[in-house]
C-alpha cells in the first residue's frame, strides 16, 4: 500500500499546486495540469493508496473556488474509487504519542 502526503501549504498558486501534486504522485509526462486530467490520472491507479491531505484549509484560502474543486476531487476519489482512502486534516497530522 502506498501512502501519499499532500501538503496544502505548498499550494499557493495553481502552478505550485500542480508541481506539488506531481512531486507526490509522479504523474506521466502527458499529464495536462487541469482538474479533469487530475481526475483521470488518479483513477488510472489500481494500487491501494492512502492519501493524507494536510492543510486543506490553506488550499481553499489560497486558491478559492479552484481549491474547493481540488478538495472535492479528493472527496470524490475517496468515495468512488475502491483503491483510495483519503484523510483530510485542516492543519498538520498529529503524531500519535
UniProtKB/TrEMBL annotation:
<feature type="domain" description="Barstar (barnase inhibitor)">
    <location>
        <begin position="1"/>
        <end position="85"/>
    </location>
</feature>
<dbReference type="InterPro" id="IPR035905">
    <property type="entry name" value="Barstar-like_sf"/>
</dbReference>
<dbReference type="InterPro" id="IPR000468">
    <property type="entry name" value="Barstar"/>
</dbReference>
<comment type="similarity">
    <text>Belongs to the barstar family.</text>
</comment>
<protein>
    <submittedName>
        <fullName>Ribonuclease inhibitor</fullName>
    </submittedName>
</protein>
<dbReference type="Pfam" id="PF01337">
    <property type="entry name" value="Barstar"/>
</dbReference>
Amino acid at each position: 500500500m502506498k501512502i501519499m502526503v499532500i501538503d496544502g501549504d505548498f499550494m499557493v498558486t495553481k502552478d505550485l499546486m500542480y508541481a506539488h501534486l506531481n512531486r507526490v504522485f509522479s504523474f506521466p509526462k502527458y499529464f495536462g495540469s487541469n482538474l479533469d486530467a487530475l481526475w483521470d490520472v488518479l483513477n488510472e491507479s489500481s494500487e491501494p493508496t492512502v492519501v493524507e491531505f494536510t492543510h486543506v484549509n490553506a488550499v481553499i484560502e489560497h486558491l478559492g473556488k479552484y481549491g474547493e474543486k481540488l478538495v472535492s476531487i479528493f472527496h470524490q476519489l475517496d468515495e468512488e474509487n475502491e483503491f483510495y482512502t483519503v484523510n483530510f486534516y485542516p492543519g498538520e497530522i498529529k503524531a500519535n504519542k
